[in-house]
Amino acid sequence: GENVEQHPSTLSVQEGDSAVIKCTYSDSASNYFPWYKQELGKGPQLIIDIRSNVGEKKDQRIAVTLNKTAKHFSLHITETQPEDSAVYFCAASRGGNFNKFYFGSGTKLNVKP
Amino acid sequence: DVKVTQSSRYLVKRTGEKVFLECVQDMDHENMFWYRQDPGLGLRLIYFSYDVKMKEKGDIPEGYSVSREKKERFSLILESASTNQTSMYLCASGNRGSQETQYFGPGTRLLVL
Description:
The complex is a heterodimer of chains A (about 110) and B (about 110).
Chain A: E1 4-7, E2 10-14, E3 19-25, E4 32-38, E5 45-51, E6 56-59, E7 62-67, E8 72-77, E9 86-92, E10 102-103, E11 107-112
Parallel strand pairs in A: 2-11
Antiparallel strand pairs in A: 1-3, 3-8, 4-5, 4-9, 6-7, 7-8, 9-10, 9-11
Chain B: E1 4-6, E2 10-13, E3 19-25, E4 31-38, E5 42-51, E6 54-57, E7 64-70, E8 73-78, E9 87-94, E10 102-104, E11 108-112
């Protein structure tokens, strides 16, 4: 089955700096890679996703890159703000009727004012 | 906007009690999922359902059962709650097929005494 590894487990940055979180996956059939942000006491919220036919996707200060050959994808947050502080999860899926997701273990991002 | 709601945000139960956690989605999604989230262990899949009355075991189904009598509602049942089932429980829903995302509810924090 699929195995998704996520690094680092914690990340502390100064406000205004960039933050990068990396994930690797094992199943070459995986074709969908969402990123979720989970604030304290809340459920995970989708912030950006990328499909396997795309190498990069941007949404304002957030970008995701995908390297299918190396089987890794990354989340980039630029000009970080204190409200970016949260736990971020990556996931991988190969779709199908069940459409199961395989999640990374999460990265706790702390943005210091 | 997709909405996934869970019946309780916080729940306190005693060992041996039967516990019902309810999840409702309003987007006519075929698939629904129950995860538990524990510190350092990420999101672990308990059970999922791909249609009414259909269910599949996830990675950690022991001690749990599920029910899906209507498409929009998916229930998680702890037949006899134990202290090691103290956790955050997250429900999600999504469509079948390729490159479809999952949407999460706010979570239920369960404490078993």
